[in-house]
Structures are given as structure tokens and as C-alpha cells.
Amino acid sequence: MPKRLVKVTTASEFGASVGSQDFVLHQWLPSSPATEPDIRHTIDAIFNDLQYIDTGDRGFVAAFLDGITEPLRQLQESFGLQLVVGTTRGKMKLPPVEWKPEPEEIAWERAYYIVAPDPAFFRADDGPIHKLGTSCRDAFVLATDPRDDVPRKVWGSLEDIFLAFEGTPPWCPKCRADAPELLLA
Ligand SMILES: [Zn+2]
Hints:
The structure is a single chain. By secondary structure, this protein is an alpha+beta fold. The protein has one domain. Helices cover 35% and strands 25% of the residues. It contains seven helices and seven strands, in the order βαβααββββαβααα. It has helices at 11-17, 36-47, 58-77, 137-143, 158-165, 173-178, 180-183, and strands at 6-7, 22-27, 81-94, 104-117, 121-124, 130-131, 152-155. The protein has a four-stranded mixed beta sheet with strand order 1-3-4-2, with helices on one face. A three-stranded antiparallel beta sheet has the order 6-5-7. The two termini are 28 Å apart. The protein binds zinc ion. Zinc ion (ZN) binds next to helix 4 and helix 6.
């Protein structure tokens, strides 16, 4: 299965993504001083309680999902943003303790949530331009890079890209093959 970031449009879709050991939230927000505080409030309303979720507690999960229904709708309809999620699996090394001097490795799943323009195109440095949500592996790796200082540039429309590259954007061939609107672009 190719790794993919999948769009989350409803609370129940969000519910299906819950259950990893931890999560990372990336915010690729358009720089608009007018709406940015409102956008941040909306994102907080979705993610503030996620760290406390105990998926075994059905009542808590149901209340949480009720609570994010409206902010999730706002994010998409009022601000034109999308939320995508993908998971990575790896091992986490537990520090040695007195009664277990050999460090122990346990399986670890991490969820990556990204709030981004819809659509979102992005690149690192002068690399190829990817589209968020395709099956491109490089795009997944770049989008979920947990470091804060990744030099990632994001565009929210094809028009912006054409303006920036004067009509010949350096598309990633994999993303282009995966997104019909880029084949024509
Ligand atoms: Zn790509």
C-alpha cells in the first residue's frame, strides 16, 4: 500500500483516524492577518483535546467527535482549508531501567495531521512541486517531516504556481500522473 495522506472532511472520518500512540500537527496556513486568528481558534477547537483521547472510552470519543463537527466544517467552508491525515509506523526505543537494563523496542504508530489550503502544492528548496494527497512517496515523506525548520514552500492554487514559475512549473512526475488537473497544466 502506498503511503498516502487522506482528506478528513467529517467528524466520523476524523474518528476513524484516532488511535495512534501520538500525533503531529502541521499547519500550512495562508498568510492572511485578517483571518489567521480565527483559523487558529478553529484548529485549536479540533486538536486541543485530541491528546487526551482514550479510544476505549466510547462516551469520551463520541463527545469529542460532536465537539469537532462544527470547527471541521468551518475549516473547510469558511476558510477553504483541508485537513489530511496519514500514519507512520516505526519502533520506539524505551530507555533502560534498573530492572530491564537492555533498552526495549516497541512498535509505535504516529498520526500526522496537516491543515493546508485546498488544493495544496508544495516543494522543498528547489525540488519538484508535489500535490498534497497524491500517492507520491516523496510527497508523503516531505509533508510528514516532523522537523520545524524544513524549508517547505506551499501554494494554494494552480494560478499562483503559474505566476511563480511563469507557466512552466517543475512538477513532480508522480504527483502529476496522479492528479488529472496537473496533466493538463
Ligand atoms: Zn510528488
